[in-house]
Specification:
Layout (H helix, E strand, L loop, with lengths): L5 E7 L4 E4 L5 E14 L5 E14 H10 L5 E16 L5 E16 L34
Parallel strand pairs: 4-6
Antiparallel strand pairs: 1-3, 1-5, 2-3, 3-4, 5-6
């Protein structure tokens, strides 16, 4: 069974944190806050149903995220959600189970409804590109 995919539109709560696994693979963690805005009878907008999503992204996308995005940026993220949990001791008492949602991000970018950006294409060498990558030897021109 394929995991469901969702799309989030929200803001980064902090700068992405980039790390590398012992084998050298990049991984970035960050949090996206989403909320539903409701217009009240007085005509003012208020945020309701605020949710904080822990996110993880891997590989070159992780490196690009850490280099390109920062706290407060509006983003659109697509990926697979998973419910996770851990136990946490509160004030030295019994452990309390904490449950949260984590999104493994496959696609991420700035929300162009709120931003204007200049895109810089990442240059890769043929050795770094997958064998079936049509862009590997295309230079700046698309392969069509």
């Amino acid at each position: 069974m394929t995991a469901p995919s969702i799309t989030l539109i929200g803001n980064l709560t902090a700068d992405p944190e980039l790390r590398f696994t012992p084998s050298g693979k990049a991984v970035a963690n960050f949090t996206i806050v989403t909320s539903k805005s409701v217009k009240g009878a007085d005509g003012k907008w208020t945020d309701e149903q605020t949710v904080f999503w822990r996110c993880v992204v891997w590989g070159t996308t992780a490196e690009n995220v850490a280099e390109s995005l920062q706290k407060g940026d509006s983003v659109i993220a697509q990926g697979n959600p998973e419910q996770k949990s851990y136990e946490k001791k509160v004030d030295g008492g019994e452990p309390v189970k904490v449950t949260y949602m984590e999104l493994t991000v496959w696609n991420l970018g700035p929300d162009l409804k709120r931003w204007s950006v200049k895109v810089d294409r990442v240059k890769r060498t043929a050795q770094e590109a997958p064998v079936d990558d049509p862009w590997a030897n295309a230079g700046d021109e698309p392969p069509f």
